[in-house]
Amino acid sequence: MSYIRFENLNKKFGQNHVLKNINLEIEQGQLVTLLGPSGCGKSTLLRCLAGLETVTSGKVFLDGKDITDVNPKDRDIGMVFQQYSLFPNMTVAQNVGFGLKMKKVPKEDIDRKVSEMLRIVGLSDKAGQYPSQLSGGQQQRAALARAIVTQPKVLLLDEPLSAIDALLRHTLQIEIRRIQKDFNMTAIFVTHDQDEAMVMSDVIHLLYEGEIDQSAAPTEMYTNPRTKFAATFIGHYNIMSAADFNRMTGASLECKDVAFRPEVVEISRKPIEAEGCYHFKGVIGDSLPHGNILRYQVYVGNQPVDVDVLFRTSTIYNTNEEVWMVIKKENCIEL
Predict the structure, then answer these.
(1) Which of 160, 132, 133, 159 has its CA nearest to residue 145?
(2) Upper half-sphere CA count for residue 95 (Cβ side, 13 Å)
(3) Residue 169: pLDDT band by 50, 70, 90 thresholds?
(4) What are the residues whose beta carbons fall under 8 Å from the beta carbon of 68, sequence distance 6 or more?
(5) DSSP, res 288
């Protein structure tokens, strides 16, 4: 039986139908990401689980228990928000121990647990400082420690890294993932950043306009998107109608759209001999470096195709240069 289950869940704000008949299961010990653009319903779904929003219809189950109408304080759920909401008049240690104090845990146990938690998140030397004396990354770790120290059944993280610079953000992604694994904690992470979702998740649930568009492990989500939206949102795909693809390659696909990644296109100054592939040629248009990758926009007639190659001397082509391309048939996804 799944550890968390949303059953036919609907949420409306007036006439705005934010969550539409959500059916979703999450296993114990997983770190699951709710991914999607702003306004797709991911934070609302998180808040329905936490009890911070009442559901319009449907059920929410946690560890076999229907918690749809349970008071938020009785759900045993920890939460870290985008704004860390640390108490400014409390030290780091006092902030971390606050939940334990509210549960009337003996002081010596609070001190021990807080000390251990601060060690785990690397803030032992900041125990006596106040939030205003901490950097953004340190505040995030303090908020994480406060949420985890009570050992909740579920940890909810609502875009907690969105206000942090890119380098620190990457470090904290790894840190959160490590702590989640160490505690074997069930966690749900909300983000609109597909790279962040790919790094952190056991499973990604992609939301679009209040519905689950696709659920899959990160690798499966990236390599096998099931819908045009998933292909657009996860990674970078060339997406075109089947009619345009057929004209470009001479194929005879009967689906609606076709998607293929820029890195699966092989490009050469000479015709390429390869079986099980679609063959076509085009003219180099624009090029744009992405670190060690050089992305070309190649025109096959009026059809633009993005092609990624490693940035090296042998792969530098000139604008308007004619090139030959092949794509393995297995790398073309019918949508």
Answers:
(1) 160
(2) 29
(3) confident
(4) 55, 58, 59, 60
(5) E
Which residues pair with residue 307 across a beta bridge? 296
Phi and psi of 102, rounded to 5°? Answer: -65, -25
Other Cβ atoms less than 10 A from the Cβ of 85: the count is 14
Distance of CA 74 to the CA centre of its chain: 28
Neighbours of 168 (CB within 10 A): 16
DSSP letter assigned to residue 333 = E
Give the integer Cα–Cα distance in Å for 267 and 281: 9
Measured between alpha carbons, how far is 118 from 96 in angstroms, rounded to an integer?
8
Report the chain's terminal Cα–Cα distance, integer Å. 32
Mind giving me the DSSP string for 211-242?
A: EEEEEE-HHHHHH---SHHHHHHSS--EEEEH
Rounded mean pLDDT of 93-121?
94
Structure tokens, 123: 């803030």
Three-state DSSP at 206 gives strand
Kindly report, residue by residue over 265-285, the tens digit of the pLDDT.
Answer: 999 999 999 999 999 999 999
Give the model confidence (pLDDT) of 33-86 as tens digits: 999 999 999 999 999 999 999 999 999 999 999 999 999 999 999 999 877 789
**Does the global pTM surpass 0.70?**
yes
CA nearest to 189, candidates 211, 161, 209: 161
Cα–Cα distance, 212 to 222 (Å, whole number): 16
Tokens of residue 73, six digits: 């304080």
Assess whether pLDDT exceeds 80 at residue 1: no
Spatial neighbors of 149 by CB under 8 A, at least 6 apart, are: 96, 97, 99, 100, 113, 114, 117
Angstrom distance (rounded) from CA 218 to CA 25: 17
Residue 163 has a pLDDT of 74
The pLDDT value recorded for residue 175 is 86
Q: Are 260 and 237 in contact (CB under 8 A)?
A: yes
